[in-house]
Amino acid sequence: MRRIRYHRHGGPEVLTLEETPSPVPEAGQVLIRAEAIGANFVDTQLRRGMAQTELYSRPLPRPLTGDVVGTVEAVGPNTDTGLIGQRVATASEDAFCDLILADARWLVPVPDGLDVGTASALPMVAPVALGVLRAGRLARGETVLVHSAAGAIGHLAVQLAKVLGAGTVLATASTAAKLDFARTHGADIGIDYTEDDWPEQVRTAAPGGVDVVLDAAGGEIMRRSLDVLAPYGRLVAYGAASGEFGSIPVTDLFALRSVTGFSLLAAHAADAERAGKDIAELTEYATQGLLRTAVHARLPLTETREVHRLLESRAQLGRILVAP
């Protein structure tokens, strides 16, 4: 089978298509024939040697992570044979392959008729979007600010904020096209964060302050976001697309503001039952048409380098899929 690896850090050119024997599932595992793979921005940072923290440390050579939609072809010993032939989705640390090994416990059954883009969101990006809103303790009627609102996670967070009862959803992005995209997915107000006065624009739109900020950018965006929080407002950090996690002085929190973080891996480890219920909830939203994933492009596995160039250009609207 074919797979993608990189053996050194660098630009997209380090990504290599390799041939390798097909894997064999062990007990508790299934083998999935991939139909589509959702690409993740964080892999561009890992590929360049960035984001090498305790949380994201990955030794070389490295595969690419992703959300796989496909059909179960085989199961390991002592694993339910009834899974064979089922269309499923799963998150994988080694996703860019024709055939993927996956833990049977975390398979997401794909409902009949659900589009492949939305199916690809169910294992990871949609649970992250829901998780950051829950970490922010969003209450009905509150104001939410979603940074990177045109991204794979951001445009889902906009939709879910509305589903969960947010009163006003403010979206930030870097271009007019991205802001229009965010509004078509439920944002009430769009703000260009490349403009230096974007915090003032937020305060004009939400004079009383923002109750919840969802931030995957880190760095200066995160630091300036504190200033737009309402009293008792909450900022949820869940990434560092800027390349900098950033830091906040404790004294900045004395103004009745709080900062928390979210990691899906940590959420799974802390409460696997809750994580499973979240996926079931998201699947129901998807089948009801309340949650949909926009697919910006769908490219073959042989063009994975181009996938990473697109991700790094920050031009995509929604998700990029790879088709083996």
TrEMBL record:
Pfam families: ADH_N, ADH_zinc_N. Gene3D superfamilies: Medium-chain alcohol dehydrogenases, catalytic domain, NAD(P)-binding Rossmann-like Domain. It comes from the Bacteria. InterPro entries: ADH-like_C (IPR013149), ADH-like_N (IPR013154), ER (IPR020843), GroES-like_sf (IPR011032), NAD(P)-bd_dom_sf (IPR036291), Zn-ADH-like_protein (IPR051397). This is Zinc-binding dehydrogenase. PANTHER family: QUINONE OXIDOREDUCTASE-LIKE PROTEIN 2, SHORT-CHAIN DEHYDROGENASE/REDUCTASE. SMART domains: PKS_ER (SM00829).
